[in-house]
TrEMBL record:
Native organism taxonomy: Eukaryota, Fungi, Dikarya, Ascomycota, Pezizomycotina
InterPro entries: CENP-V/GFA (IPR006913), Mss4-like_sf (IPR011057)
PROSITE patterns (alphabetical): CENP_V_GFA
GO molecular function, one term: carbon-sulfur lyase activity
Gene3D superfamilies for the chain: glutathione-dependent formaldehyde- activating enzyme (gfa)
Domain CENP-V/GFA: start-end pairs: 29-147
Stated family: Belongs to the Gfa family.
Keywords annotated in UniProt: Lyase, Metal-binding, Zinc
Name of protein: Putative glutathione-dependent formaldehyde-activating gfa protein
Amino acid sequence: MADTKPDLSRPYFPRSGVATDGWTSDTEATATCLCGAVQLVFPTEGPGLLNRFVCHCADCRKLTASMFASNFAVADTHLKHVRGRDHLKSWGQSDTPKSGTVMTNYFCDTCGTLMYRAGEVLPGHSVLRIGTVDDFHLHETKLKPQMEVFVENRVGWLKPLDGVKQIVEQGQAIEELPMQDAASKQ
């Protein structure tokens, strides 16, 4: 049987959802919801790309219907809505892992894909899901997590990521690693 593993050393856009117009450049890429109604353009390097991280908090578990979320934070000044801003519905709460801080979630109103979160913890920044990024090559390179947060909540059958900073309780963890340094270590 032939090896069917994709070549992730270069841009790779697998069939995923309805939209087929995702793209990547040296400094930007797209993130698209499953139905294609919402598409964002985000920076793939600093200063707009702030951090990449895996989160084990209770909110991320519920929001992803999984045991963790793979995220990246971007400055809102560098986040562009290509299409579907009118398709985004928001829902927020203040009962979050960092109690008392409001987090607002922005979902596609057609397919339900969570496109990003924004909150008081990081004013002027949005947290996107790595899984919405169209170019899977970026998952292995520029968006590879730098840290894991809320590791005290990680399930026992999931091991820590090798070479990744482990942080108990998020606090200001998302802001801890300057993006310019992290991007140069890829």
